[in-house]
Design goal:
Elements (H helix, E strand, L loop, with lengths): L9 H9 L3 H8 L3 H9 L7 H11 L15
């Protein structure tokens, strides 16, 4: 299973449960690998609003009911 033993954010855990990988999400959302690594591995990190929108747009292709509050405490 992906992510075993690593700290993961809500987004990282969601990717793990769906069997998706960070690289595919990064390509779809058109964000850098470094930013996506921070978003998936650091539960305290909250990305800028524009980055959140890009990520959520890519996520909604898999889960149309997803909301920002599912991944970030706001």
């Amino acid at each position: 299973m992906w992510g075993v033993g690593k700290p993961r954010s809500k987004l990282g855990k969601w990717l793990d449960t769906k069997g998706l990988n960070q690289q595919d999400l990064g390509r779809e959302a058109k964000i850098s690998k470094n930013t996506l690594t921070k978003v998936c591995n650091n539960p305290e990190y909250i990305p800028r609003q524009d980055i959140m929108k890009k990520i959520l747009g890519a996520i909604r292709k898999v889960d149309p009911e997803a909301k920002m509050s599912d991944f970030w405490d706001m």
